[in-house]
């Protein structure tokens, strides 16, 4: 075993004066227990291998500079629980698997969020299969997976969340307004279904706009709005984003993935 935390078996190639790795356990370095420490996240394809979550910083800068990540990360701003202060917020991350947790009763994703928000000991939550999962201790073994991973919400100070350039809300308002009018005014096509199909087919996204806009809108912005709209009408309630999450997506603080097609769109689009 070496500093990577993996047990490795190597063979010496006589013709080529070098050692060749042919077996290691765990196979992937991100699978090494607590490799990145508390609140650190591992990316098998990234360099460095470990990074602190947004709103966190290395516990020991000197250790991290030497590629020793085991000391983990701490919040940039301590949470002022029980005091009159700004309420904390949640950072959404997608990980390969969820760490060990405790479960608590909650009827919805919103109730689960409130439960964690009101608990001084809660560090994170996730709402999976109609079950509220909460984490009171440090988060360990976080491994990045943006494609098919599990979503977890980590409690952080609001001021430490990234604040990117804000979306042009005038344009967003106009797009949403005209989309709403078209949805009401034309029953020949079920509009959410039309939006969903345009997203899947990759066809002209500006075709969903009202003609009065004269196609004067940012393609990226309209695509983002349409994706958010499809997330908001998901069949399973826990998949639907909260309004604060929607706001942060439209502001550009968070990215939004392609949503699954809701059944209501599959059945009603003509």
User: Would you count the extended β strands for me?
Assistant: 12
Regions with little confidence, pLDDT below 50 for 5+ residues: 164-188
- Average pLDDT value? 76
Distance, first to last CA? 61 Å
Helix content: 25-40%
Percent of residues in beta strands: 15-25%
Global structural class: alpha+beta
Write down the Rg. Answer: 23 Å
Number of helices: 7
- Based on Cα principal axes, name the global outline: globular
The total domain count is 3
Strands side by side in the biggest sheet: 7-12-9-10-8
Major pleated sheet:
5 strands, antiparallel
Element order: H for helix, E for strand? EEEEEHEEEHEEEEHHHHH
Keywords: Disulfide bond, Signal
Pfam families: PAN_2, S_locus_glycop
GO biological process, one term: recognition of pollen
Protein name: Apple domain-containing protein
């Amino acid at each position: 075993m070496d500093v990577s935390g993996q047990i490795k078996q190597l063979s010496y190639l006589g013709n080529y004066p070098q050692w060749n790795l042919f077996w290691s356990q765990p196979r992937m370095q991100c699978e090494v227990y607590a490799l990145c420490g508390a609140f650190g996240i591992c990316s098998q394809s990234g360099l460095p291998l470990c990074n602190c979550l947004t709103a966190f910083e290395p516990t020991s800068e000197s250790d991290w500079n030497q590629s020793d990540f085991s000391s983990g990360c701490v919040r940039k701003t301590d949470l002022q629980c029980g005091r009159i202060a700004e309420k904390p917020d949640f950072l959404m991350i997608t990980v390969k698997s969820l760490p060990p947790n405790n479960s608590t009763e909650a009827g919805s994703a919103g109730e689960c969020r409130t439960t964690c928000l009101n608990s001084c000991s809660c560090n994170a939550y996730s709402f999976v299969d109609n079950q509220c999962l909460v984490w009171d201790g440090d988060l360990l073994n976080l491994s990045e997976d943006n494609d098919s991973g599990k979503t977890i919400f980590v409690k952080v100070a609001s001021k430490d969340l990234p604040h990117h350039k804000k979306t042009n809300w005038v344009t967003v308002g106009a797009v949403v307004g005209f989309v709403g009018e078209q949805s009401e005014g034309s029953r020949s096509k079920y509009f959410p279904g039309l939006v969903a199909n345009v997203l899947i087919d990759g066809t002209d996204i500006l075709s969903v706009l009202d003609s009065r806009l004269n196609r004067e809108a940012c393609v990226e912005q309209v695509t983002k709005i349409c994706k958010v709209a499809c997330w908001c009408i998901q069949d399973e309630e826990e998949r639907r984003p909260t309004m604060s999450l929607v706001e942060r997506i439209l502001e550009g603080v968070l990215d939004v993935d392609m949503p699954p097609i809701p059944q209501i769109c599959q059945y009603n689009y003509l």
